[in-house]
Every structure is written in structure tokens, then in C-alpha cells.
Design goal:
alpha/beta; 14 strands; 15% strand
């Protein structure tokens, strides 16, 4: 069998090599039209579906002629411009990677996942702010922040302290020029967003890691998940949290609400101060495929100039406004190194997070292995548990659990902390299960989550206590602990592999 595999791999390698050689050998020089322009038969452009696809298609239709006209000025005769909206962000990245797309309008996160097959050409610009500094103290000294007509290729995430006593104390230390320590921040109440949010979670986690060697996870129960920036600022105003993580111009968006909706007498600029500023978060990109035959060094220069000029026209501005872009500036790959770090950090966080998707996976794995009582008998230590022979698990129980979980939204499955009573009632109705059963499952899940986190970190006290309650101790207890710890580590490793595959 091994010999056969080697032969197969070798044969495939030869076939692929031959194909590549044929491709290289058959590559012709670029065609030129009668007027001396270089002819491109078709230029394929992919847009990510960050809005309704039909809306993007309609808005970008004028780009076809705009691009043809502008590239003609640069010496290129483009016969056809094909614009598509990907089924997902990843689909556009894959298109660039495969060379089926020439150009992709993709966010920074997508670019760093596919930078092996794609090259960033331009970074989108938006209105800049009056302050753009690494120092929280500088932001505090120069507030209020104002929007400018200057075009910015990046923005910051900010850690903003509010009017609570702890918030005032930490801000006073920053404004005095003192260096913060982990002890200064770990006992503060932090408002954070969904773990997929760059400004509300990922980049603040990166800042905590670079500043203190810690992450938001290390804040434990002091990290409070908010479902919107509006609710986060409301909590900050009321003193429920001391610090919130948000995007740089969030206070401009919340300025009126601070006094009118949140009941504060003084302005948001008087009552809030920064304690931290993240590295720049670069805007969306225009990236090109490294594998497309159309994308030559000369064409990249022409395309770069063409898109910058198009963005200056009134018609061009309407096109790029579909992504809230205001213009474009040349970019380089190194601009997105921090985004790569952020993505890596996000993967680690997800790998260490036990959510309802993992819960479903575990249920499916267990069902494939056979009855639960038979599985328990195979685990060293657990197989001696008193009363195990009398244990029977109804398969319908797992089916009911699964029905409840599948009635949750993807966001709820990934972030169980947002499961409010109103959401639980909706889940109960959707799964046709009693609310008490939904609440019981969530409680069981939280206990499982706590135990999984303990086991993956080497802490077996929870399992030890559970086994002692079942009348198990000694060698059997130890064997079971080792087995369960290994299982927890495997789960974490498998999850990380899945995340990398998705990328």
C-alpha cells in the first residue's frame, strides 16, 4: 500500500509538472491592437458580499465602462469587464488564489488569509480623525476628536475609561504619564464585543497581549459581552463597566446620546478618557491575483493609477461608496502584518473557546460511537463506577438537545453569554421544547464548558470532585483524569486544525 501511494504521488507530481511546463511554454506575448494598446480579452473582478449582492451588482455596474476608459488612457484595450459578487468572503479569496479572479475588493482579514495567492495593490481611504497617535495621553490632551477631510488608510481601536470611580482612577494614572500594569487593569469591568469584532475584541486582545502578555480571556468575569456599541456606552455611562473597547470615532457617534439618552450631565469628552490605543487597523483592500496571466507588473501600475483616478470622479465615488470607500492609496503587504497577528490571535481564542458548535460536534461524535453507557464502560477508571450497569441513556435525549441548539442563531451558538431570557424563549418556541428544558441545557453546557477549560489547562479539580461524588477514587480516578485531560487537548487541537482549514 505504501509503495502504491508513493507511485501515485510521484505520478501526480509528474503530471502537474508537465502541465505547468506546458502552461509556461504556451504563454504568449500580450496582444496589441491596431493603435498599439495591449489587449486584455476579459478582466474578472470579485466583490465580497458585505451587503446585499444585488445592491452591489447594481452599484458597481458603471465600473465596467469607467475602468475600460481609464485603462485605455494607460495603454490597455480591455474588451470585457466581468463583475461578480462572491458567495462568501472566502470565495473571493479563493478566486484570487486560483487565478479565476484578476482583482478582488476584499477586507484586510480576507487578504491576510489569502496573501500567498494574492497581492495587495491599494488600500481604501475614509475620512481621517484629528488625532492618530499611539499614546492614550496624547488623545486625552487633544480631545475632542474631530473628523477631517484628510484621507486615512487605517483606524484605531481604543480602550475608553468612563466616569466610574475606577475609570477615573485609571485615567488619572494614564494622564500623569504613568505606565500601566496588569494589576491596574485586571480588576476593572471591561465591555467587549463579539470575539469576531476587530475593534471591539480582536485588536484590544492584541493590545493586552503586547502590553501585559495577557488577553481578554484573562479578565475572566470582568470581561462583559455587549451586543452593540450603543449598549456598551450606556453601561459605561451608568458605571456598570469601567472601560469599553471600541473604534476610534465611536465617541463622535455617541456624543448626543451620552447626555440625551444615557442621562449624563457633562459631555462625553469631559467624562471619558483613553487608557490604551491599538496598532492601526488597515482598511479594505483592492488586491490582485498572483496567478492571473493578466496581472503583469506593468498592468498593476496601470490598474493602480486607473482606480485612484476613478475614485476622484463623481461617478466613481458613487461606485465605491457601496463599501463606504472614499478613495484609494497605494499599499504594501507589510501594512497588514498586524492584521495577520490579529487573525492568529483570533484563531487561538476560538480554539480555546468551548461553544455550542463544539457541543453539537461532541454529541455527533458520541452518537457515532454507540450508546453512552457502553462508551463509559471502555474508559479506564469510569468502568468501575457503581451502578454503571443500570445506566441507560435515551437516544431521544441527545436529539432534543440538538434541536434546542439548532434553534439558536450562529451568533448565539458562538457566544452563549448573550442568551438572554427573551432569546431563550424564542429558542424554546423554535425547538418545541419547554423553556425549563432550554434553561437546563444552558446550565449543563456552562458546567461542561467550565470543566473543559479546566481540563485543557491542566486543572483536574472539577473532574476529581465529580468522580469522588460517584464513589470513585485512587488509581481509577487518576486514569480517568489523564484520559479526560488528553481528550480536552485533542479537542482543542482539532478545533485549531478546523479553523486553519477554513482559512
Amino acid at each position: 500500500m505504501k509503495i502504491f501511494k508513493r507511485i501515485l504521488i510521484s505520478s501526480l507530481a509528474l503530471v502537474l509538472s508537465a502541465g505547468l511546463l506546458v502552461g509556461c511554454g504556451s504563454k504568449k506575448e500580450a496582444k496589441k491592437s491596431a493603435d498599439g494598446k495591449i489587449t486584455i480579452e476579459k478582466l474578472s473582478i470579485g466583490f465580497v458580499p458585505s451587503r446585499e449582492p444585488s445592491e452591489i451588482v447594481t452599484a458597481t455596474e458603471p465600473l465596467k465602462n469607467l475602468l475600460k476608459e481609464q485603462l485605455a488612457k494607460e495603454g490597455y484595450d480591455v474588451k470585457n469587464v466581468d463583475i461578480t459578487v462572491g458567495t462568501s468572503f472566502e470565495a473571493v479569496g479563493e478566486g484570487l488564489n486560483a487565478g479565476t479572479l484578476d482583482i478582488g475588493f476584499i477586507p484586510a482579514g480576507t487578504y491576510v488569509l489569502y496573501r500567498d495567492g494574492a497581492e495587495v495593490l491599494l488600500t481604501a481611504t475614509r475620512k481621517g480623525l484629528s488625532i492618530n497617535d499611539d499614546s492614550a495621553k496624547v488623545w486625552n490632551e487633544q480631545k475632542p476628536t474631530k473628523k477631517t477631510n484628510d484621507q486615512a488608510t487605517s483606524y484605531r481601536a481604543l480602550m475608553i475609561a468612563g466616569p466610574s470611580e475606577k475609570g477615573k482612577a485609571i485615567a488619572k494614572k494614564v494622564n500623569a504619564g504613568e505606565k500601566l500594569t496588569w494589576d491596574d487593569v485586571k480588576d476593572l469591568k471591561w465591555s467587549v464585543m463579539n470575539p469576531t469584532s476587530p475593534a471591539g475584541y480582536i485588536y484590544p486582545t492584541l493590545w493586552l497581549n503586547e502590553t501585559f502578555g495577557k488577553t481578554i480571556k484573562d479578565l475572566g468575569n470582568n470581561a462583559i459581552l455587549s451586543d452593540s456599541y450603543g449598549s456598551a456606552f450606556a453601561r459605561l455611562a451608568s458605571g456598570q463597566v469601567d472601560v469599553l473597547c471600541t473604534y476610534a470615532d465611536a465617541r463622535l457617534d455617541q456624543e448626543k446620546k451620552w447626555t440625551e439618552n444615557y442621562g449624563r450631565k457633562a459631555s462625553i469628552w469631559e467624562e471619558t478618557n483613553l487608557i490604551g490605543v491599538t496598532a492601526p487597523i488597515y482598511n479594505d483592500t483592492v488586491s490582485v491575483s498572483k496567478k492571473s496571466k493578466n496581472i503583469t507588473p506593468e498592468f498593476k501600475k496601470a490598474l493602480e493609477k486607473a482606480l485612484i483616478e476613478i475614485a476622484k470622479t463623481e461617478e466613481g465615488k458613487k461606485v465605491i461608496a457601496v463599501y463606504s470607500h472614499e478613495g484609494y492609496q497605494p499599499a504594501k503587504d507589510a501594512d497588514y502584518d498586524n492584521e495577520a497577528k490579529a487573525q492568529e490571535m483570533a484563531d487561538k481564542i476560538k480554539a480555546n473557546t468551548f461553544d455550542f458548535n463544539d457541543f453539537i460536534d461532541q454529541l455527533d461524535q458520541v452518537n457515532k460511537m454507540g450508546p453512552l453507557e457502553d462508551i463509559l464502560k471502555m474508559i479506564p477508571g469510569l468502568n468501575k463506577m457503581a451502578g454503571l450497569n443500570d445506566l441507560k441513556v435515551d437516544p431521544k435525549d441527545t436529539a432534543r438537545m440538538k434541536a434546542i441548539v439548532l434553534s439558536m442563531t450562529p451568533q448565539e451558538r458562538e457566544n452563549p453569554d448573550i442568551l438572554s431570557q427573551a432569546r431563550r424563549k424564542r429558542i424554546a418556541a423554535g425547538s418545541a421544547r419547554p423553556l425549563a428544558e432550554v434553561n437546563r441545557l444552558i446550565k449543563q453546557f456552562n458546567e461542561s464548558k467550565k470543566m473543559m477549560n479546566q481540563m485543557s489547562n491542566g486543572n483536574m479539580k472539577g473532574l476529581e470532585g465529580m468522580m469522588n461524588q460517584m464513589g470513585m477514587g485512587g488509581r481509577g480516578n487518576k486514569l480517568a483524569q489523564i484520559g479526560m485531560q488528553q481528550y480536552a487537548r485533542r479537542q482543542k487541537q482539532n478545533k485549531l486544525k478546523k479553523l486553519k482549514k477554513k482559512r
